[in-house]
Amino acid sequence: MISQIGLTLPLLILLSMLNCANHNMVKTGAISSFSFQKQILQTILGEQKLRHEDDVYYWPKATDPEAVDSTHLGTTVNIDYLGERLSNVRENRGTHCVGMSWQVCMSVLQDWAQAQNVTGEISGMGVNDMKDFVDKWFVKLKGAPLAVPPEMGAVYALTSHKLGKRIQLKKAQAGDFVQFWRKDNSGHSSIFLHWVYDKQGEIVGFKYWGSQPTTDGIGTGTEYFSLEEFALKPEKLVERSRFYVGRLSPGAD
């Protein structure tokens, strides 16, 4: 029996929880007045929804000619950094998981950076640095097998470029970025919302925001670590040891 407590937490409750914990998110300097997780939640759950009525889920296959076009990164808006285009909206308005989680991260980071300097430069990162950040976020292995740290995706990108930190699983908070892998080795990049508990109070799953086939694009989903009767197939259960959590916090220790 899965507890329904928290399965439909509204944005205001999530933001209230974050307001109470803001003093733990940042330590010094310019970041002390900027609540990254609050901004992330407002971006994905606020009144200005990211999803356009024509958006769909689209994951390019290697056989798809568009797959070789590295400027379409599964985002709903064009994304530029320091004058260079990093992502164009696809003609079919297709989005996917890593594209949308990265878009949210970039939106919040750019808002923060532009408040700090007129150039919009993020933590001293040049264009090539940002492209490396993208490659790590998108788990571009370049022929290497899945392994830690590359398979950590968003978490690897955030920590490598000192834009965030890895968080222990049980300390995940709404607005954290997660990269997880299922028993069939399929993966997903998303934004954590809250845990799902069984009647004994044990964590058995989690709810997240992202772009996925089950919602044909942007929406929320729930997946499980255990209780196989709640999964379409046992191999679709998430491996707890491969559930990686990262918190956006540039400049934090």
Question: Mind explaining what this structure looks like?
Answer:
By secondary structure, this protein is α+β, with helices and mostly antiparallel strands. It has one domain (about 10-250). Helix content is about 25%, strand content about 25%. It has five helices and ten strands; from the N terminus they run ααββββαααββββββ. It has a six-stranded antiparallel β-sheet with strand order 5-10-6-7-8-9, sandwiched between helices. A two-stranded parallel ribbon has the order 1-4. Helix 1 (about 10-25) runs antiparallel to helix 2 (about 35-45) and helix 4 (about 125-135) packs antiparallel against helix 5 (about 155-160). It is globular.
Topology:
Elements: H1 11-25, H2 36-45, E1 56-57, E2 79-81, E3 84-87, E4 94-95, H3 97-116, H4 127-137, H5 154-160, E5 164-167, E6 177-182, E7 187-197, E8 203-212, E9 217-224, E10 238-248
Parallel strand pairs: 1-4
Antiparallel strand pairs: 2-3, 5-10, 6-7, 6-10, 7-8, 8-9
Q: Can you list the strand order of the major beta sheet?
A: 5-10-6-7-8-9
Rg, nearest Å: 18 Å
SS elements, strand count = 10
| Dominant shape | globular
Given as residue ranges, the uncertain stretches (5+ residues, pLDDT < 50) are 1-13, 15-32
What is the string of SSEs from the N terminus onward?
HHEEEEHHHEEEEEE
Largest sheet: 6 strands, antiparallel
- Average per-residue pLDDT, rounded, comes to 83
Helix content: 10-25%
Distance between the termini: 40 Å
